[in-house]
Amino acid sequence: MNSKHTFIWFIVAVGLLAFIFGWRFIERPAPPESMAVLPGLHVSAVTSIQIVPNNAPEISAMRTNDNWILTQPVFYPAQTAAIEGLLDSLQKLNAAVRITPEELRQNHDANATYGFATPQMSLVIQSGDDRREILVGNKTAPGDQVFLRVVGLDGVFVTDVGWLKFVPQSVTDWRDTTLVHNETSYNSISLTNGAEIIQLAQNPTNHLWQMVRPLAARANGDYIIKALQQLQTARVSQFITDNSNADLTAFGLQPPDLDLWLGNGTNDVTTLYLGKTSTNDPTLVYAKREGWSAIVATPKQPVSPWYGMVNDFRDPFLLELTAPVAEIEMIGPNTNHFLLQRQGENGWTIPGETFPVGADSVQNFIQLLANLRVSDFVKDVVTPADLPAYGLDKPWRQITLRSTIGDTNAVIAQLLFGDVNTNEVFVRRADEDFIYAISPEDFNRLPGGPAWQFRDHDIWNFSETNITQITVRQNGKILKILHNGVNQWSLAPGSQGVINPPALEEVAHDLGNLDAYAWLARGVNNPARFGLNPRNLSITIALKDGREQTVDFGSQLSSETSLAAVTLDGEKWVFVFPPALYQLVMTYLSAPANVP
Q1: CA 159 – CA 475 distance, rounded (Å)
Q2: Rounded CA gap, 300 and 310, in Å?
Q3: pLDDT (0 to 100) of residue 404
Q4: Which residues lie closer than 8 Å to 27 by C-beta, 6 or more apart?
């Protein structure tokens, strides 16, 4: 054989080898397809599910307006999360092995072998017109897998048993245990827990709750909101019976101990009936929802606020600040009559007065008014003839809050105060017919009357670096202390005693920011009345600009403080000296008894 023929046969052999390898590559089996048991199943598209266990009642549920409702064996709200948990597990379910039809035909008793002669259960999943049915057979010998058959498909799937934990063992597993669903925001409530019907409504404008029956009154919004929130936490502890012909009387549900209607506008959204205490557990009470036949047992605590009496649902405060206060009119006691008017964002003035008004004092006063708590609802039906008995025919004090300066129609609230007794103070609102009582303690926290009590508590402000000398007068003795610089203090010629410069620096700093703990009197003509006399302690502070500021001390109120007086705008003002500063003054700025 010549070399030419040899080369030709070599080329043929190489081509044949390449063909063989190429053909094998083309003919190589494709990777196995996904072994999804229910391909194309989507949880959001499922409209109903049916579970038929062997020798147990059917459990069926259908989706309605994004909620699930049980339809068999009872008609009742279902747990959406539980149902969709099962559907999600089926959507993701893959088979570990698929037994082919040929393998099944080789087993003449395949139905019995794999448990399909008498399946554990069947599941029917409906997604619109798409119907899927699964038969659940036996578990494998180790027990960690289970045989499944999808009706309409040949073969048998072998899957992990984990998804079976989502299958309900009874209808109770899928029943919604929420006692009251928050389908909407409630703005009307009616309840009967005794002889009286209590009706409540939320004002659509300011969203405050009002009592409509048995009387028109302000309602306790905090109590109502808390009661609604607690009701949302109420859960069914036990499903007693679904028999629509059950004896309601035996459960205290005919008539109920409590009827509760929750509505939106004129529509009753939820109606709940509560009966007597459970015979097996005193912490539970029998309950029933309108529209559902089920009688259940639920804990008492979440529903307990609804057993309250009429006054429990009434506003426990005298007023609600429904708008920012712009003006306060004070009338009484006696001849006191003045206005507090807002100036700018945070400032306040008193027309006719020149002294600065303390914004903090006014805000504190407003807060005290807002916190006035009703200690007793004294009388609900009041006629003019009733008022003298409570000192309210001629109120000795009147406080009016307005949202606009000078506008008598912009009244937020007007409080009229009557007799002050040992245990209660009578008061009424001008826009209501009721008579209330508040505690004397709350009443006594209110400013006593005169406009000057609202003067700014800041008396003066200057830095200790501006002080040149402090003169102390007490018991006819005079002690002069010179300020020579930071922490540099010395006795003036002719003064005797012992001083503590660092401590004096601190006292001087605090005296430069003196404020009144409380104002007690203005324009004092009889200083002795307040214990002010020339022999008492008096401190004069000389400043670099030539001004002098003097504070005189009067009657000691306790070991902590005393009365004091300063002259402001040509008038002597008496106030309670700040207790902390009083201790420093007594320690470092009083004249020693042994100084001549």
Answers
A1: 103
A2: 20
A3: 96
A4: none
Q: What is the mean pLDDT of each run of 10 residues along the chain (596 residues)?
A: 51 48 39 75 96 94 93 95 97 94 88 93 96 96 94 94 96 94 81 90 92 95 94 95 93 94 87 94 95 94 95 95 94 90 94 95 95 96 94 94 95 95 94 95 89 95 96 93 94 90 96 95 93 94 96 94 95 96 93 66
Domain limit, last residue, from 412, 430, 454: 454
Q: Classify residue 406 as exposed, middle or buried by CB count within 10 Å of its CB (0-12, 13-18, 19+).
A: exposed
DSSP 57-86: --EEEEEETTEEEEEESS-EEB-HHHHHHH
Range of the domain at 369: 327-454
Q: Are 221 and 229 in contact (CB under 8 A)?
A: no
Give the three-class secondary structure for 488: strand
CB neighbours of residue 319 within 10 Å = 18
Q: Two tokens at 132?
A: 């899927």
Q: What is the pLDDT of residue 19?
A: 43
Residue 474 pairs with which residues in a beta bridge? Answer: 477
10: enclosing H helix or E strand = helix 3-27
Cα separation, 427 vs 378, whole angstroms: 10
Statement to judge: residues 303 and 411 lie in one domain: no
With beta carbons less than 8 A apart as the criterion, state whether 184 and 264 touch: yes
Give the number of domains in the chain.
4
- pTM exceeds 0.90 for this model: no
Same domain? For 410 and 364 the reply is yes
DSSP letters for 308-341: --GGGGB-SBS----S---EEEEE-STT-EEEEE
468 shares a domain with 450 = no
Residue-level pLDDT at 540 = 97
Cβ-based neighbour number of residue 505 at 10 Å: 19
**Rounded CA separation 129/283 (Å):** 48
Tokens 């703990």, located at residue: 517
Considering only CA atoms, which of 431, 474, 430, 500 is closest in space to residue 593?
474
**Alpha carbons 126 and 57: distance in angstroms, whole number:** 19
The residue type at 12: V
Q: How far is CA 430 from the centre of its chain?
A: 31
Which pLDDT does position 498 carry in this prediction?
87
Cα-Cα-Cα-Cα dihedral of 53, 57, 62, 67, to 10°?
-100
- 568 plus 490 within the same structural domain: yes
Interior/surface letters 175-207, b for 16+ CB within 10 angstroms, e for the rest: bbeebbeeeeebbbbbbbbeeeebbbbbeeeee
Contact 56, 136 (CB under 8 A): no
CA 335 to chain centre: 44
The predicted pLDDT at position 360 comes to 94
Indicate if 332 and 450 belong to the same structural domain. Answer: yes
Q: State the virtual CA torsion across 189, 190, 191, 192 in degrees, nearest 10.
A: 170
Q: In this structure, what token pair is assigned to residue 471?
A: 């003169």
Give domain status of residue 412, yes or no. Answer: yes
C-alpha 413/C-alpha 400 separation (Å) is 6
Same domain? 507 vs 415 = no
